[in-house]
Amino acid sequence: MNTSRRDVLKLAGAALASTAFPSIIVPNRAFAGINSDTLKVGLIGCGGRGSGAAMQALKADSNVVLHALGDIFPERFDTCLEGLRKVHGDKVKVDNERKFVGFDAYQKVIDSGVDVVLLATPPFFRPLHLEAAINAGKHIFCEKPVAVDAPGIRKVMELAKVAKEKNLSLVSGFCWRFHEPKRAVFGKINDGSIGEVMSIYNTYYTGGAWNFPRQTGWSDMEFQLRNWMYYTWLAGDHIVEQAVHSIDMMSWAMGDVLPVSAVGTGGRQVRVDPLFGHIFDHFAITYDYPNGAKGFHFSRQQENTERSYLVETFGTKGRAMANCSRPTHKIEGQNPWEYSGVQNDMYQTEHNELFASIRNSKPINNGEWMANSTMIAIMGRMAAYTGKKITWEDAMKSTEKLGPDSVNFETPIPKIEVARPGFTPFI
């Protein structure tokens, strides 16, 4: 993912530079219980990702305010609000009594009178927070991934149906689906420009990630929460938390047809210090599809290695390229083509379309495909961790629940060992 998404100060500059706004239409007051022309936003998770989402939400509509914040670490509030106020000024209307701290902060934000919630906590919490927001009738921006295990995915799929029944917008943080060059190239793939898709090669090769050394007074739980990316129960491993973007585009190229099975490998080759939890630092997964097509996924988080972030799709009539590192979106073969249109800010487009859907009473629901894309990544992790062939049916029926039923700073940390292919069981 673009690191600027994690840096609220850089986002502030980007927000000032961009000028794209959706058309504003007077809302239908009967739509999903909204009774005011001013849309109130609540942010749940005030780190860099959440701060960026709030930045874009406030820009997406001329009559929207930030109403409430929630996080388990209160020191994040000041950094978040400083960046937002530099750009949005009096659109930031968060009084001290609407800065909610603790593991129940999400519910307090939802109950504070907001119309839209932005969910940007570690992925483990996503099904719980989605459930609370949908039950309360709120529109939602939901960061990816949407869960870390199959029970969580099954829950999200149920919730997506409820959101549809309630006419709620549920917009996903799978940002490339909102990128105009990607929409163009994958649209052509889905329309048959390269014929029948037979193989897809996708990568997410990157360097390391941030970490926070342990401080005096931190419990084991607090240490893991502050370094959540390195714990499978919180993040799903980097194939689920980060490289899922490439897997989502692979699924997009297949028209969101689900894979039949997956086999693969992975391991912890470079990043072996206990500081980095128990996740792998590389994966290689092969997915089999119903028509005989294969998807080849490769990802790693290793310093001083070659970077690559792309999707190449091979069909019976040609080859399509979508490169996330360079502005390359083209088709070679019987129907050659190269994208030459706008290069939009996909993060902003996510929110523009979310708020326009609320104003126009035409809810967007990304629930099914965002859950499926997350599950394809989880399925790949299962294959790598166990060393076994994992079918989609078996993956979806998995009863493995990675985290505890409830969490506080004194909750005993889940006992998860580094996976060993051939020894780690499929559950």
TrEMBL record:
Protein source organism: Runella aurantiaca
InterPro entries listed in its UniProt record: Gfo/Idh/MocA-like_OxRdtase_N (IPR000683), Gfo/Idh/MocA_oxidrdct_glycsds (IPR050463), GFO_IDH_MocA-like_dom (IPR055170), NAD(P)-bd_dom_sf (IPR036291), TAT_signal (IPR006311)
Name recorded for this polypeptide: Gfo/Idh/MocA family oxidoreductase
MF term (GO), any: nucleotide binding
Ranges where the Gfo/Idh/MocA-like oxidoreductase N-terminal domain occurs: 39-164
Domain GFO/IDH/MocA-like oxidoreductase: 189-320
Biological classification of the source: Bacteria, Pseudomonadati, Bacteroidota, Cytophagia, Cytophagales
UniProt cross-references to PROSITE patterns, sorted A to Z: TAT
Cited SUPFAM superfamilies: Glyceraldehyde-3-phosphate dehydrogenase-like, C-terminal domain, NAD(P)-binding Rossmann-fold domains
A Pfam family annotated for this UniProt entry: GFO_IDH_MocA
